[in-house]
Amino acid sequence: MAARRPMSLRRRLFLQMLGVAAVLSVALYLTVRTVAERAAEATQDNILAASATAIAEAARAADQGILVDIPYAAFAMLGAVSEDRVFYRILANDETITGYEDLPMPGPGGAGPAYLTSPYRDTVVRIVRLNRQLPVDGRPVDLGIVVAQTRLAQDAIARRVANVAAGLGIGFFLLAGLLGGLAAQSTLRPLRRLAGAVSRRGPSDLRPVDHSAPSELQPLLSALNGFIGRLRAALDRTETLIAEAAHHVRTPLATVRIQTEIALRNTDDDATRRTLRAVIRAVEESARSAGQLLDHAMVSYRSDHMDRGPVDLARRLSEMVHSVTPAADLRDIDLHLSGVDQPAAITGDEVLIDAALRNLLDNAVKYSPADARIEAALAPGDGWFWIEIRDRGRGIGEAGGAELATRFRRGANVGDIVGSGLGLSIVEEVARAHGGRFSLENREGGGTCARLELPRT
Amino acid sequence: MRPARTAANLIAALLALVAPLTGATAYEVEEERRFGTPEADRELHILSTTDTEHFQPLIEAFLATRPNVALIYTVASSTETYKAVAEEAAPVDLVISSAMDLQMKLANDGLALPHRSDATLSLPDWARWRDHLFAFAQEPAVTLLSRRVLDQLPAPQTRQELIALLRDNPALFRGRIGTYDPRSSGTGYLFATQDARQSQAYWRLVQVMGGLQPRIYCCSGQMIADLKAGDLMMAYNVTGSYAAAQLDPDREGLVIALQDYTNVLLRSVLIPPTARDPDLGRAFIDYLLSPAGRALQAERTGLPPIDGAALGQAPHLHPIALGPGLLVYLDQIKRQNFLREWTDAMIQP
Predict the structure, then answer these.
(1) CATH 3.30.420.40 fits B139-263+329-346, yes or no
(2) Looking at beta carbons, which residues of chain A come within 8 Å of B334?
(3) Each residue of A261-302: pLDDT tens digit?
(4) Among the entry's GO cellular component annotations, what is one (chain B) (predicted)?
(5) What is the residue extent of each domain of chain B?
(6) How far apart are CA A225 and CA A207, in angstroms?
(7) How many CB atoms lie within 10 A of CB A449?
(8) Which pLDDT tens digit goes with each residue over A95-110?
């Protein structure tokens, strides 16, 4: 199971900003609502208090006690502001003298008006209570004026304000989200620039990265440069090792072969000659294997770090055919080259392509009987160039071409011929590195057709 | 028409006789009539202070398009109507009353169901209180002057002129002045309190009238009848819609809307919470306020429909706005004080 990829920095930054924006938006919404509702309630309280004051001021002592002559304006002013229902209750010494006897009321609130929100009958009302002392027959009487009003207008204001506040909150959130996205983008720009600068480098460019980066990126940059340094050192060592190995293996083998051939020429003993021939064959096998191992190591390395450039396939094929001609001539094999009159330009790594062609031609020569004919053809296709190397060898047997292209895998019918099993896997790897295809088929009438297809520039 | 009405009156009288026996209604019914076919399966019960004959054209037009509806129209006084809803929870679908303060108190105390439609929203602000109380007729409180006065004296245009007229001609007016009794009539109390609120001239007028041994009436109809008969020279605060229809200006008397101000009474309707078929009630309100209903009302009933434009052209007409201010004069103490003051001024030994 693959480990979950960590969230991208941009998304993380953006989401965190969105989270903060959401919290602030909700806070804004609640604040606006609370403030506006307080203001609306204060407005209603003020009108209620004004109404109660108007009633209180109209109260006076009379013969029978207190006379409370409710002014018309006291209720009309409540009706002018909203269409809310109105209730009232007037008390003298805590005894209801007129109005709604069951109207709840706040406790006496001292000098100023006292307020209460309470359910009453089928609704909820805001209630104000105002106290006033009135002398009646020389004795003070506590007059209580209670005026109440339903809260429809206030609720309507609250609803409107809630809508406005919600709009404000959503707008704030969207704006913050947009700005957050832009901020995340711009914050991460140096990082992207650095990544771009590093990824734009050529395959062999292992110089330290010299890029101005913000201080937060400096540790990454110095770590990267340290890593590049170590990689360069390791690559140098590998290249040296490859060169050393080639040298150390090939040179002694060549010496052994020359010495053996001299010995072969100088002896007449048949048994000795057979032995020497076996030695030569083994040396050939070893030299070839060593060469292919080096080739393969080189191809593996280079296909990861391709040195791309314009390559003329026609020219490469001609040269490679040319280079195997001496080996073919030895066995009277006729090498026939076609389709190389026109240049065939592709973008690729010339060294790799040479290795692939050399291996294909080597194989063809190796597995062809003497006096056979090998055709090397180049032709343009639709978006492709293809190269076919056709021989009249023993074919590829029952195994499929794809299987033979695996490393160290050889056909079941080649026991008598020297081979490492690396050649076709080299070709396959080169084709893949260039975005091309490689296939291997039996020809009609015997032999093999190896086909390498490479995309045009 | 005539025989039908007689028959209807007979039925109503019989019903009125039967009603107290069955105990179905504790409030005092003046008249009750049933409209519509016997096989109707829906019933709309209207409790109203307006005489049946005024409403009959509207009722018949409403029922014409609703063959499955029957309508029971009960007439009671404004205080009985209020009592029926506030105290007895009478199962009526609509309450129609000219006592604006009592209607307002019903609505304010939560005894009205809401109704909102294009028709109700077309009413001016002063003719509607929330979605609960709707005015459908505007009737000025007018002054009637007998032709016998006008033959000798110019018609007064303001209360000042009316006061002067009464003061200068005590012999002509003594014992021949009529006005509403605010103690027994809800409409009379409303007119009197609104007068007192509008102008100080009202109390002086009451003072002057009180000095001329006025006659106190329960209803507009009786005042108009007495004026026609020549028993009254002047009647103050009469419901204008009745008077204009019944008075011959050339022979009997003149309807005067005083120019300093003339209160306009609004007849209003509400749906009590005890309604059995509130949707039918809503349909009737919508019909009443519809252009067709208003046109028929103006033409056939003698009740002027709500017309904000007409009032706008006559600035002396002050509609008594529906609103909590009306509750002030329903306060027991306020009412006692007002009536005591009124009685002291009007009933002079």
Answers:
(1) no
(2) 68-70, 98
(3) 898 889 888 898 899 888 888 888 788 777 777 777 777 777
(4) outer membrane-bounded periplasmic space
(5) 2-138+265-324, 139-263+329-346
(6) 8
(7) 20
(8) 998 999 999 999 876 7
